[in-house]
Amino acid sequence: MNDEEMISEEVAPVEGNNQVFGLMHSAANLYSQCMQVEARTEQVRAWSEAKITETVAKYRSCQDFLNFTFGERDRALSKHYDLLDKAVADGDRELIIAALKGISGIVTSSPLSDFDSFVQLYNDTNQPLLDF
Amino acid sequence: MKKFLLYLAVIVAAIILICKLDWGIMQWSILFSILLGVRAVKLALMSPGDTLDNKILNGISHLTGYQMSWWEERQLVAVEDYTTGSVKGLIYKWGVTILGVLSLVYLIFHGIGWLFSQPIFWIVVGSVAGVVLLVFLCIKLRKRAIEKAAEEAEKREIEFVSSCNNLVDEFVNAANIPMPVGAISHDNVDFCASALEEIKSTMSELQGSGADNAVALKKKLADKKLEVFYKVSLPAQSKELYEINPIQVNLIFKPINEAIASSDFNKLRLSMNENDNAYNNLFRTLDRQKALLDDNTMAPHLDELNKYKDMDTTTLGGLVTSSSKLADKARVLKRIYEAAKSEYEELANTRNLVNCLLEKQRIAAYESLYLGVELVNIIRDNAGGRGLSKADDVVEMHLNLNDVNLEYAGVDSDIKGLAFSSVSNLFDRMSSDDRFYNYAVENPKEVLGNQALEFIGQAIRDRNDAIESNNNAIEQIVNKLPEMVDAYSAGQAQLLRAIEIVRSIAKANRGFDKIYRPIYEKVFVQDDLSSVTMADVQALVGAMKEFNAISKTTL
Questions:
Q1: Which value, to the nearest 10 degrees, does the dihedral of the CA atoms of residues A55, A56, A59, A63 take?
Q2: Confidence of residue A101 (pLDDT cuts 50, 70, 90)
Q3: Alpha helices of chain A — where are they, by DSSP H?
Q4: How many Cα neighbours within 13 Å face the side chain of B414?
């Protein structure tokens, strides 16, 4: 056996070991990366579910608030509108003025400031009133 | 053949002429330099033709907005001119250019002294310099004159605006006509100035008149003030509605302009109210818009979000995330978001319509209240009404439509086909890298084993990248969702409130008109001021007070 063959016989196992170590290192990196991805996916899932639940709940509360507030106002205003229509049909001036007074008493107050306050209270997580 | 003989004859004649002329190099140099100059002027004045290169350049310019400079265009023209055309044309162009350049060089080195000794040269140069200087001076003077004129115009405009504001103050304070600032402009200043003079003279005439004349003078004064109100004040208050819906404003002013043209002021006083058809249409429209808002069309999309939350994205018994399932989930979320976004856009359309109706009713109220004040002033000899104004707020959308758009990078990411590139890389490397090829042939198991591992590794990395892209997309969408839903709720609240105000003003206007009309008949039609009772005035004032409060209501 000449020198070159002897050298290649000794070098080959060392090169083989280096390759194995390299592969193990890559596999470990891949595993770590997969674990990180799974953790992140779970984090995004949990966070998005909480956010969606919160958004839907807030929307429903706002809708209930609007339905209740404007519903009540609509009912009251409708009564005054009917009274006004009747007064206009009959030509009754006192009744017209009374109906106008009733309408202005409701319409001149804005429910939007109440709505803004409601939204502010809802967003305030320190607010004990909304802690069910 | 004929052409060839013709050209030959021309060349021979030219040679004979040249020999006969007995010119020296100087003269020929000057001739060819002049020809070169003519060629240069012709090139400077030519436009690039319709060649293929030019079409391509125009296309590029059109797409990118790049505009060639004058010098670049000249280069294009020069190249084009020298490359297109017939052989004889080319011989002429190249011949003139080469001889012209050589002549110019000769002239520069040998002819400069001779040229400078010629008086005609200095006359020509002096004239050209004089003309250039004159043109330059004229341009500068003209520029200075324009700047000065612009300054003067600006100064005069400021003075004009100031005098218009003074006129507005006089109308409000002296004539008791409500008028917003900026109502008087170049279009109506002459009318306003003469109207104010007429009003002032009628008012002073009224002060010095007896009881017989007083009623007629009061009517004359009321009519003139009414004309100013309809020609100046009311159009100024209608500017915002004009921006939203000019057709609507033109419809409102059509009967008004007709009445003004015919000087029928009684007709003008009755132009304020809509007929029954228009009134009923208004309430039908309002009912329809309110029903759309009450329908709560955003709710089904938000309900779908609950189902979205339950979508499973795992595989292998829940151990590992499936990138394709996650991609599906992200796609579902994107679809729900887009549907919710279209509801928000629909709300913006409703807002435009309701704002238009709100403005229109406020203008009608402004008009009615002025007429009420006018009537009270005539009956009671008052001078009120200067403080009449119109509410101006409209429904705003809290989020711009641009703010609810998202970039969906990564929602459709999946690993299909991505990992196979690593296999094709192996074969590419073997075909291009001889040393690697030899190594692969001698160690096939190792190479294939490594490649297989690399393939799996790449597939896993691609899968991880796809999952991460989808996670980012989901994060982006879920971040934006609450803002949009909140803005939708706020917009809905504003619209419900606006509809409430529109209904109230329209109803109140009808009620007010019922009280106003009989008194108007007594004063303006029957011309019988004495038949107006205290009860009439009290009813009118009472109705106006409530109507004013309703019409000035803001959102």
A1: -170
A2: very high
A3: 3-90, 93-107, 112-123
A4: 12
Which ipTM score applies to this complex? 0.80
Does this model's pTM top 0.90? My answer is no
User: Has residue A15 got a pLDDT over 70?
Assistant: no
CA angle at A43 for the pair A38 and A48, rounded to the nearest 5°: 130
pLDDT of B383 > 60? The answer is no
Cα B264 from chain centre: 41
Note whether B326 contacts A81, CB cutoff 8 Å: no
Contacts with A118 from chain B: Cβ below 8 Å: none
Is A1 in a helix, a strand, or coil?
Answer: coil
Which of B447, B489, B510, B534 should be substituted to probe chain A, the one whose Cβ sees the most A Cβ atoms within 10 Å?
A: B489
Q: How far apart are CA B249 and CA B240, in angstroms?
A: 10
pLDDT of B436 strictly over 80: no
What does the alpha-carbon distance between residue B339 and residue B304 come to, in Å, rounded to a whole number?
11
pLDDT value at residue A78: 94
What single DSSP character describes residue B314? E
Nearest CA to B82 out of B96, B94, B100, B65 is that of B94
Residues B442-448 have a mean pLDDT of: 62
Please state, in angstroms and rounded to a whole number, the distance separating the CA atoms of residues B200 and B206. 10
**Which range in A92-106, B336-350, B366-380 is most confidently predicted, on average pLDDT?**
A92-106
- What are the φ/ψ torsions at residue B314 (nearest 5 degrees)? -105, 165
Helices (H), B407-533: 420-432, 434-442, 444-520
Q: Which of A52, A66, A74 sits opposite B309 (nearest CB)?
A: A52
CB-based contact A104 B546, cutoff 8 Å: yes
Are A58 and B486 a contacting pair at CB < 8 A? yes
pLDDT at A131 over 60: no
Does residue B291 surpass a pLDDT of 50? yes
pLDDT at B249: 84
Instruction: Identify the bridge partners of residue B314 per DSSP, sorted by sequence position.
Output: B321
Residues A21, A24, A26, A28: is their CA dihedral positive or negative? negative
Integer-rounded Cα Rg, in Å, for chain A is 38
Q: Report the pLDDT value the prediction gives residue B433, as an integer from 0 to 100.
A: 61
Query: Averaged over B145-173, what is the pLDDT?
Result: 88
d(CA B467, CA B417): 15
Q: Is B315 helix (H, G, I), strand (E, B) or coil?
A: strand
DSSP letters spanning B131-149: HHHHHHHHHHHHHHHHHHH
The CA distance from B157 to A5, in Å, is 102
- Contacts of B524 by beta carbon, 8 Å cutoff, 6+ apart: B219, B265, B266, B269
CB contact under 8 Å between A37 and B546, yes or no, is no
Q: Is the pLDDT of residue B64 over 60?
A: no
Query: Is B555 within 8 Å of A87 when comparing Cβ atoms?
Result: no
Residue B135 to residue B330: CA distance in whole angstroms: 70
pLDDT of the residue at B417? 41
Mean pLDDT of B98-122: 79
Task: Say whether pLDDT at A84 is over 90.
Answer: yes
First-residue to last-residue Cα distance in chain B? 94
d(C-alpha B96, C-alpha B424), whole Å: 62
Q: Two tokens at B530?
A: 């004495």
- Residues of chain B with Cβ-Cβ distance to A121 below 8 Å are none
- Tell whether the model's pLDDT for residue B94 goes beyond 90: no
Side chain identity at B311, as an amino acid letter?
M
Q: Say yes or no for a CB contact (<8 Å) between B302 and A55.
A: yes
Helix (H) or strand (E) holding B555: none
Contact by Cβ (8 Å): B196, B171: yes
